[in-house]
Design goal:
alpha/beta; 13% strand; 7 strands; binds nicotinamide-adenine-dinucleotide
């Protein structure tokens, strides 16, 4: 008889970049399963407080917010320490914060390259470095990096993003090997296109870079890559997140989980 259960009551999850889009959806899904949550991300203070209070009330869990900027290593370390201090344990780390910039390589701004590598890749190094000693002491932990289909394949005009996402796959595999005997798993979820604020911005940028209309970007660039011809839904990512966080996911380690309608099968 199966003994698997996905109740996360009493566990603590830190989700970077959870004030918007995929991160907010993952935080909500983890809270719905009983986990206490540390939200993080940029945005309007009143809107973040409303998100925090609503999540706590709807799911009957504790939800705190930490404003760490993913460009600043010392703030990332402080965020992990805050989560541990608030709840006495830290079970789940989701590295999700990310930005995008779409431009030809010869015009790609140096400062955009630096910011994308820092937020989409280096921030995960700092959060993982801070959380691993806590998880080792607990004898259990789950680290989930939100990579992308672009961790597995490339697209033109996204040099920094594709480099960072391929990089986080390397980080995922390396740390997975290092912590495997401590009850800790490290995996990457690789979504295809999800209709978030990040993607809405990208539609306009891609239209400019390719010299085509925004409708053509959605039809001929984004959904062309996705064989289902549909955007990925938040709950499809939440379902995988909960699987990886539960005991059912204990033997998944160092792996990439594509959720992109078959894009990388081509
Ligand atoms: P989004 O723009 O809706 O959310 C990004 C989050 O990151 C926000 O909460 C934002 O405040 C936070 N963030 C940005 N810069 C930050 C900083 N310096 N410090 C702290 N937080 C910061 O984007 P999204 O589409 O939900 O993307 C979330 C993740 O999913 C990213 O890593 C992205 O690369 C990845 N992803 C998105 C898609 C997609 O189609 N939307 C596909 C594949 C992968």
């Amino acid at each position: 008889m199966s003994t698997i259960q996905t109740d996360l009551s009493g566990q603590t999850a830190v989700i970077t970049g959870s004030t918007s889009g995929i991160g907010a959806a993952l935080a909500d899904g983890l809270a719905a399963s009983g986990a206490n949550i540390i939200l993080n991300g940029l945005g309007d203070a009143d809107a973040i407080e409303a998100l925090r209070a609503d999540m706590a009330k709807r799911h009957g869990v504790e939800v705190r917010y930490h404003p760490a900027n993913m460009l600043k290593p010392e703030e990332i370390t402080a965020m992990v320490g805050f989560g541990h201090q608030e709840f006495g344990r830290l079970d789940i780390l989701v590295n999700n914060a990310g930005i995008q910039h779409v431009e030809k390589i010869e015009n790609f701004p140096d400062e955009k390259w630096d910011a994308i590598i820092a937020i989409n890749l280096t921030s995960a190094f700092h959060s993982i470095k801070a959380v691993v000693p806590i998880m080792k002491a607990q004898g259990r932990g789950r680290i989930v990096n939100i990579a992308s289909a672009h961790a597995l394949v490339a697209s033109p005009f996204k040099s920094a993003y594709v480099a960072a996402k391929h990089g986080i796959m390397g980080l995922t595999k390396t740390v997975a090997l290092e912590v495997a005997e401590h009850g800790i798993t490290v995996n990457a979820i690789c979504p295809g296109y999800v209709r978030t604020p990040l993607v809405d911005g990208q539609i306009a940028d891609t239209a400019r870079a390719r010299g085509i209309s925004e409708e053509a970007v959605v039809r001929d660039v984004m959904l062309t890559a996705q064989p289902t011809k549909k955007f990925v839904e938040y709950d499809e990512l939440v379902g995988l997140m909960l699987y990886l966080a539960s005991d059912a996911g204990a033997s998944c380690n160092g792996a990439a989980f594509p959720v992109e309608g078959g894009w990388t099968a081509a």
